[in-house]
Fold:
Amino acid sequence: MSSMKSPKAVWFGTAALTPYILMKTYWAFGGIAGRPAGDLAASMRANGAPEALVWLEQHGIDFTVLGALGGVLLLTALTRPWGERLPRWTLLVLGWPGAVALTPYGLATMIAAAAGFTVGDAEGWSPWVGYVGGLAFAGLGLSLALCTRSYQRRTRPPAVLAHA
Structure:
């Protein structure tokens, strides 16, 4: 089973996430372009966010960046030989729901930004943040769909292959 599959999908997903990670890194170092005025950590706390997420925000770490990095790791696991040594169900349980949730959310975010609407608690954010975030979510979702499909086919148990 061995060779890497869907390398273009991994690069596409990583490329789609890059502006998002750069934007969040800029914010972590104190940049304010695109962000609403005010204390985001305090706003998160007021809206009932878990204290762990508030703590991360207070220390310049956006939890969504950790998710994006996890997404890149998942894409890599789905396409590298070492990923085939992991329990198959684990990668499928992460890959398919991620693809199904992130793709439409990313597309909706970009459409909402283009139409001048906000998504979720995005009040006060610059529209370009919606484009960057939407591209990241949709790009990661589509890449997960392609890579998960390839992984599922490559790692199908032999008995299933005989009936296909």
In short: The radius of gyration is 18 Å. The chain has one domain: 7-163. The chain has seven helices and no strands. The chain has a mean pLDDT of 86.
